[in-house]
Design goal:
Number of domains: 1
Number of strands: 11
Number of helices: 11
Largest sheet: 7 strands, mixed
Order of helices and strands: HHHEEHHEHEHEEHHHEHEEEE
Distance between the termini: 56 Å
CATH architecture: 3-Layer(aba) Sandwich
CATH superfamily: Vaccinia Virus protein VP39
CATH class: Alpha Beta
Strand order of the largest sheet: 5-4-3-6-7-11-10
Oligomer: single chain
CATH topology: Rossmann fold
């Protein structure tokens, strides 16, 4: 607690305690997350405002997004993580189209805009507060409006066109495991961004079954998940088919290769998928 108070005093109040500072200490005592009390956090060198209380960006997400950006910036060879690169032409790489689904605060797409040149990012998010939050953070980080779009969308419901890369950090906590959450997370962070149905795979399945329709040939997906879900997600790729409930028929996925990667803590945390158009 003392460490959090010291950080709050330094980051928000510049070592000048005020009456508001004392009120913020009470917020910490009530177990409100420090990042909410401060009002912002850092994500790969970007300042991320949290005034609308989106999901707080995690170090695990920061880890794999940095790996992905290494690939985007070095298309001619494998990066240090061993990720292969999609076979898109040099001309296309001059203007990569990126889709950030389940955007939340917008931290993933914003980091890409900052660190990867010649990219245009579409942010897709269904929560109205988060849509406001994304716009706040785009303004805060001084991006020209011709480099991005912010679209209200339930997964892909309002998305059109094809993208070179799709980034996704879907809600993936299983409701049956909600008792395992830290009290501060369960009490203060948005449930809409945390829970992915009873088994945590509701949005992951929906995302993977539809994503191929929005990828260019040899386009790629980067997606975060819970380490305990690896086997179930792998089954989706092994079988490569699913029931399209809208049309009542079996359909086949077009994912050529997929690989699971570990985070900085040694847990399976994200996957990279390449799409090949049949």
């Amino acid at each position: 607690m003392q460490k959090e108070v010291s950080w709050l005093l330094k980051e928000k109040y510049h070592n000048k305690p005020t009456e508001k500072f004392k009120k913020d200490i009470k917020r910490l005592e009530a177990e409100e997350p420090l990042d909410y009390v401060i009002g912002f956090t850092e994500f790969l060198g970007c300042r991320i405002d949290l005034s609308k209380k989106p999901l707080i960006p995690r170090p695990e997400t920061e880890f794999w997004v940095e790996k992905a950006m290494n690939e985007l910036n070095n298309p001619s060879s494998l990066n240090s993580s061993g990720h292969s690169t999609p076979r898109v032409s040099d001309s296309k790489r001059q203007n990569l189209r990126i889709l950030d689904v389940f955007s939340g605060s917008g931290c993933i797409g914003i980091a890409i805009l900052k660190h990867v040149k010649n990219t245009k990012v579409t942010f897709a998010e269904k929560d109205k507060k988060n849509l406001q939050q994304i716009k706040i953070n785009l303004t805060l980080n001084n991006f020209p409006n011709n480099r991005y779009k912010v679209i209200p969308s339930d997964v892909f419901s309002n998305i059109v066109g094809k993208y070179d890369y799709i980034f996704a950090n879907p809600p993936y906590i299983a409701k049956v495991n909600k008792h395992r959450l830290q009290e501060s997370v369960a009490k203060y962070e948005p449930k809409i961004a945390l829970f992915g149905g009873q088994d945590g795979l509701l949005y992951i399945r929906k995302f993977l079954y539809q994503a191929q329709n929005f990828l260019r040939d040899h386009g790629k997906i980067y997606m975060e998940f819970d380490s305990i879900q690896k086997k179930e997600i792998e089954k989706i790729f092994i079988h490569q088919n699913f029931l399209n409930k809208n049309f009542g028929r079996q359909e086949k996925l077009g994912y050529k290769s997929w690989k699971f990667y570990k985070d900085q803590y040694g847990k399976s945390r994200y996957l990279v998928v390449e799409y090949i158009k049949y």
